[in-house]
Amino acid sequence: MSEDSLRVEPKLKSHPEPLKEYVESPEKQRQLYKKTMMVVIVSQIFGGAGLAAGITVGALLAQDMLGTDSFAGVPAALFTLGSAIAALLVGRLSQRLGRRAGLATGFLGGGLGAIGVVLAAVLDNVPLLFLSLLIYGAGTATNMQARYAGTDLALPTQRAKAISTAMVFTTFGAVAGPNLVSITGQWAASMGAPALSGPFMLAAAAYILAGLVLLLFLRPDPLVVAKAIAEMERTREKQNSPTGLKDVELSVHKPGIIVGTTVMVLTQIVMIAIMTMTPVHMKHHGHGLGEVGIVIGIHVAAMFLPSLITGVLVDKFGRRPMSYAAGVTLLLAGLLAAFAPGDSMVLLVLALALLGLGWNFGLISGTAAIVDATPPQVRAKTQGTVDVLIALAGASGGALSGMVVAQTSYSILSLAGGFLSLLLIPVVVWSRNKQKHARGT
After folding, report:
1. How many domains does the chain have?
2. Are 40 and 54 in contact (CB under 8 A)?
3. Assign residue 2 a region: left if phi > 0, alpha if psi is -120 to 50, beta otherwise?
4. How does pLDDT run across 99-123, given as a tens digit for each residue?
5. Residue 202: which domain range?
6. Residue 3 falls inside a structural domain
7. What is the pTM of this model?
8. Are the C-beta atoms of 361 and 323 separated by less than 8 Å?
9. ∠191-192-193 over CA atoms, to 5°?
10. CA distance 76 to 276
11. Angle between helices 181-190 and 198-217 (to 10 degrees)
């Protein structure tokens, strides 16, 4: 046995035998990557169905219970604020105990929140509604953070594709949810509950199932394995170059985190603001609940279904070009939503589809940039912190959207959102110039 292998061996023995097997075998890592993707895919199908309830009928439920449009954006703000808190907790829990513990806890919490929303609607209890929506946001945060689980063992050239694979399967549940609004509403009404509580009954079951899938099958934990692999590589690098090893914190690429975060924050604000008020806008123009479900269903499909193609494009052409594409697409969505006649289903569908597509471009390119910029030792914690900012941005967009529409109009809101998205371009250009400057020095 060589001297190098003798030096590495004691460190490897510090890992449990099952984990050591994956750390030392690239083939085992590939197998675990594929298994992880399958488990994440199944959980995302259920998670998508849970996510759709708040998007589709949250504003309408608040409108009915509060009797005013001014606070119709509050549900989106609350479950987005709840998702901010949950994102931090899920990220920290994942960093400490692994993806399995963090994601399962988040989904189960979201399920409990959805049950609370149903009880609030039945009891006509507004404080309980607000508290439950806050807890329900845990499912939203977890649904988003699950996209990171597939990247833990992915190669750098596979990361965007791994993110997009997890996201595209969210489509099945997320599109089915809005289109089951009428059915779940009838079912809820048959049990004596308000019709708008029906989608939240579906959300409760979906989130709990997603949590159980992760809890039972996400073994061994991909993040734990990735951290062990990184630890082994650092040990070998330290032996080969004792004075040349960088600290983990120094290996974080801060400009990449700033750009990835900014791209996702801006796309989230624009998407949440316009999406939240679209059902209310449609209701004012005589559209029924079924038509609202169709528009939001297509919007959610556009958020997730193009993901496989987007992931390939992000990996092939880079994070920056797709960030530019996100800003331009969101601008088009805002302009179309602003100028489309309120009674035109076709134009509303197209506007909301573009809104979802622009969000998709921004989320996948921004997420890939964050993963690129962080080593496994601090990745989950960093991702959780970034998702907090994204969720807070969405909460702000949701809360302000109702007030903007009440004081001005849906058209003004859509125009403002569209032009706000253009801020993506100078931020990405700044990052590019900073990177060139760093290489020059």
Report:
1. 1
2. no
3. beta
4. 999 999 999 999 999 999 999 999 9
5. 14-434
6. no
7. 0.74
8. yes
9. 95
10. 7
11. 110
